[in-house]
């Protein structure tokens, strides 16, 4: 999965037909996670040797009333912001319609990479429409028949060079950017570096002793290598294992898993382990991009688990919470509800982070865990355009104006995303020190929901103007 492609366009042009063709049966198993939007369908796509994530704005079919335009616009904007590349689809038989023009406009303004496709392109009835598509000013249209599978070669040819670009970008070890206002940041950026073969995704599995960390890693490895390896039980530094984690679609995702003491040799003394798991977890967390907090379903959210999760958040890592030993859980539904409630209550700082149930022993849920890790990584790297942010900020202030301490209203003037990994935002305002914590929280929660950023810490910095 090297990049994300969003299929956008008005209803009925054939978006879902293409989505289904690209995804086949390999639908991403992320639907049951909190924070995942219901209106956007996401799937693991394959086109020849390309592997990528595809997003479909599927929720639109049901809308027939006046709100269509607004809804369509919002959903499309969202899909565009999530994607590295947009495939804009029109119906070649119908030609270019006024609604198509609305979409074209959104894409021209917002999307970094647009591929234009004139669908239903089989047969002469489509000739005129394909020609007309040039008038959209989005380049040469690909003549496609999603239904008959025609034109996919062309689609591949258009995607290839763009896909290469994302692979290269991900290969550079992206340094942490200082939180400074980047004046040049305009509307162009929509990049989400993804793990590629060049750079394994760095994952730490942390959790209390006996949560099942070693079993989990062994399950991924597919062999009993971990505890018997030459590294067992000696070094106190975090060590790592380079693995290729094969997903449900047979594609191996390169990862480096950072090991903790509990995963190496079992000390005889349990008490020692209890102490170790936090300090050792810290070491692993430092190296990681994504932290998997592994809980034991029988004793979830213990003090140590909370400390480790909080640690990961403070270190700015993407977080996935995995609940292990799900195989022995009897009341799965009731337990899940209880877990979600505890999660909300005990780890509000990780709101929306994915909660995945797994059995490290049987291997159930491993696909979902992998999908959650990939997605958390993706969100962690996400960039929101400045134009979009400021429109959003205006709306947030309108809905709920900042307070006015001593009769002086705090003015929030301007907002920009200063960094990724994790996403960090700077708000230029009149009295940065007077902005109450509750208002910052309001903005952070809003960012999380409106820009669909579950499972990642979000940093917000208030800055004065001078
Ligand atoms: P969406 O609403 O944009 O997701 O469009 P759908 O994928 O649901 O397709 C709308 C209709 O167009 C369906 O009846 C499809 O069977 C049909 N359709 C999709 N692709 C093609 C195509 O390439 N050729 C023709 N003739 N019909 C198509
Ligand atoms: P670690 O200390 O976190 O590395 O935990 P281990 O991987 O050593 O597992 C601790 C115990 O839990 C072992 O007895 C495992 O067999 C057991 N265990 C691990 N995962 C599962 C699971 O998914 N289901 C069940 N029933 N037991 C598990």
UniProtKB/TrEMBL annotation:
This is GTPase Der. GTP 2 binds at residues 207-214, 259-263, 324-327. GTPase that plays an essential role in the late steps of ribosome biogenesis. NCBIfam families: GTPase_EngA, small_GTP. GTP 1 binds at residues 9-16, 56-60, 119-122. It comes from the Bacteria. Belongs to the TRAFAC class TrmE-Era-EngA-EngB-Septin-like GTPase superfamily. EngA (Der) GTPase family. The gene is der. The keyword Nucleotide-binding applies. One of its GO terms (molecular function) is GTP binding. Associates with the 50S ribosomal subunit.
């Amino acid at each position: 999965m090297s990049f994300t492609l969003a299929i956008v366009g008005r209803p009925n042009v054939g978006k879902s037909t293409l989505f289904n063709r690209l995804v086949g049966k390999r639908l991403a198993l992320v639907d049951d996670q909190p924070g995942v939007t219901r209106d956007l369908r996401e799937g693991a796509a394959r086109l020849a040797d390309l592997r990528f994530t595809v997003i479909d704005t599927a929720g639109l079919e049901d809308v027939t009333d006046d709100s269509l335009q607004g809804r369509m616009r919002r959903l499309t904007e969202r899909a565009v912001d999530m994607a590295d590349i947009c495939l804009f689809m029109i119906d070649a038989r119908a030609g270019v319609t006024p609604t198509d023009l609305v979409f074209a406009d959104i894409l021209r303004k917002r999307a970094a990479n647009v591929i234009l496709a004139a669908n239903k392109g089989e047969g002469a009835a489509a000739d005129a429409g394909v020609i007309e598509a040039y008038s959209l000013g989005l380049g040469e249209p690909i003549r496609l028949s999603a239904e008959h599978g025609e034109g996919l070669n062309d689609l591949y040819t258009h995607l290839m060079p763009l896909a290469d670009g994302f692979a290269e970008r991900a290969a550079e070890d992206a340094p942490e950017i200082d939180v400074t206002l980047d004046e040049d940041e305009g509307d162009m950026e929509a990049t989400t570096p993804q793990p590629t073969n060049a750079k394994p995704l760095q994952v730490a599995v942390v959790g209390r002793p006996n949560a099942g960390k070693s079993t989990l890693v062994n399950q991924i490895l597919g062999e009993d290598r971990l505890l018997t390896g030459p590294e067992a039980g000696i070094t106190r530094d975090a060590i790592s294992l380079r693995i290729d984690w094969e997903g449900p679609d047979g594609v191996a995702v390169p990862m480096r898993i950072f090991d903790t003491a509990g995963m190496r040799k079992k000390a005889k003394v349990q008490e020692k382990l209890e102490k170790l798991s936090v300090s050792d977890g810290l070491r692993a967390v430092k190296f990681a991009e994504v932290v998997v907090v592994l809980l034991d379903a029988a004793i979830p959210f213990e003090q140590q688990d909370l400390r480790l999760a909080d640690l990961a958040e403070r270190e700015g890592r993407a977080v996935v919470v995995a609940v292990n030993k799900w195989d022995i859980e009897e009341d799965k539904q009731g337990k899940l509800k209880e877990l979600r409630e505890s999660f909300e209550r005990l780890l509000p700082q990780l709101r929306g982070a994915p909660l995945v149930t797994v059995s490290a022993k049987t291997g159930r849920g491993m696909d979902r865990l992998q999908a959650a890790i990939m997605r958390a990584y993706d969100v962690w790297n996400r960039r929101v355009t400045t134009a979009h942010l400021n429109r959003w900020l205006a709306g947030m202030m309108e809905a709920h104006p900042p307070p006015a301490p001593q009769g002086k209203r705090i003015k929030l003037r301007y907002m920009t995303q200063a960094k990724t990994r994790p996403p960090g935002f700077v708000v230029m305002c009149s009295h940065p020190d007077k902005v109450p914590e509750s208002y910052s929280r309001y903005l952070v929660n809003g960012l999380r929901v409106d820009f669909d950023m579950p499972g990642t810490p979000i940093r917000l910095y208030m800055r004065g103007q001078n």
